[in-house]
Amino acid sequence: MSNLIDRGTFVMGTGSRDAALDRNVILKLERKILGGRCVEEQIDRLNRWQLASSPLLMKEKGEILLRRGRLLEAQKVLADALRGLADGAMQQAMLSAMALLAMVYLRTGQPGAASTLLKFLQDEAAGQGFEPCSGHVEWALALGGHLIGATPEAAAEYYAAAADKFADSGDWRRTSLVLADHLFRQYFAAAREDWFAALHRLDHAAAFDPEARRLGRLIRAFDAFMAGRRTEAAALLNEAGEDAPLTGIWSRISAELARQLQLFRGIDGNPDLDSGYPAMNSPDLEAESLAELTRYLQVVLTDNREEARLSESRQNSMEQLGLHPVFRSIARKLRELAAEAGAASRTEADTATGATISGQTEAGIPAGVD
């Protein structure tokens, strides 16, 4: 049976014995999912007929697609899962599917659809005091709170509640991802001591989930870069690259951070710098925004004011599609860092010129002057 699943050739209904074995596999996976276990590898081995037989498995598949950045596929799978779960009696799984679908809407620039789901989830969370709700609900509310009037403080509480729920169930992969989202998206909004407390929690999760260690290195590299410590940021990013590669949006964050460091090193004339960027009008709003931030830094560093204004206009358009406020804060910080780098470069040039003039004067230049 497992061989049939591995080859992806099993089709429901080919025989009563096979159908019974197939159903047994699905029930076992469903129990693991309800227990908070990670079943990503097993889900990947199922064919579409097996997935379609269980809305719960479809929800899990949709989350995997979301995590990998395959957003249009994730939207379809999660919408189908939500319809199936709504017909059953699995309210918590239904709310989880709704939360995941809201996350997809956030990432694909559909603020109206996202807000509708988020408001419903917010009412559910408030009415149930969080306890019966899945960690996905709080996670979605944290990510999209800016669309429904939630304060940064409320978003921090949602992040903490989501991380607590996933950790309590032993789901360290989701715990790691929630904490990384918290650290990245609330980098400018959180008090510094609160930010480091969340980073400490991510370090703790690394004892149980290898991806937490990779995410921790990336977050520390981002922190060093935002603080202007570019040598430290590059070293941390290199360390992160020594591990298995990150996936989804974290892979894009890592790639853009590397490109931005490259720009500051003054080797931005390479025409290959734009290779690998998501195409404009990509379905992934956040990946497109991250690439736009790198383009913005490039034109700001070269003092191309016209192109900088065009980039700012594109960033404003993305904000209208519900983009998280952290991206605007990053743009402002990049402009500050570019200005500091330009001032430092001018100071070094002036110093070098002064030294040259001084050397010439000491040597009796220009000649013929008494």
What's the structural blueprint in terms of helices and strands?
Blueprint lengths: L1 H6 L8 H19 L5 H6 L2 H5 L2 H13 L3 H16 L4 H17 L3 H18 L6 H10 L7 H17 L3 H14 L6 H14 L4 H17 L3 H13 L5 H17 L20 H17 L3 H16 L5 H37 L8
Helix pairs in contact: 5-6, 5-7, 6-7, 7-8, 7-9, 8-9, 9-10, 10-11, 11-12, 11-13, 12-13, 13-14, 13-15, 14-15, 15-16, 16-17, 16-18
Helix segment count? 18
Largest sheet: none
Over all CA atoms, what is the radius of gyration? Answer: 25 Å
How many angstroms separate the termini?
Answer: 100 Å
Quick one: overall form? globular
Calculate the mean pLDDT score and round it. 83
Would you summarize the structure shown here?
The chain has 18 helices and no strands.
Task: Considering the chains and any ligands shown, give keywords for the structure.
370 residues
What does this structure look like?
By secondary structure, the protein is mostly helical. It has helices spanning 2-7, 16-34, 40-45, 48-52, 55-67, 71-86, 91-107, 111-128, 135-144, 152-168, 172-185, 192-205, 210-226, 230-242, 248-264, 285-301, 305-320, 326-362. The model is unreliable at 1-17, 267-275, 352-358 and 360-370 (pLDDT under 50).
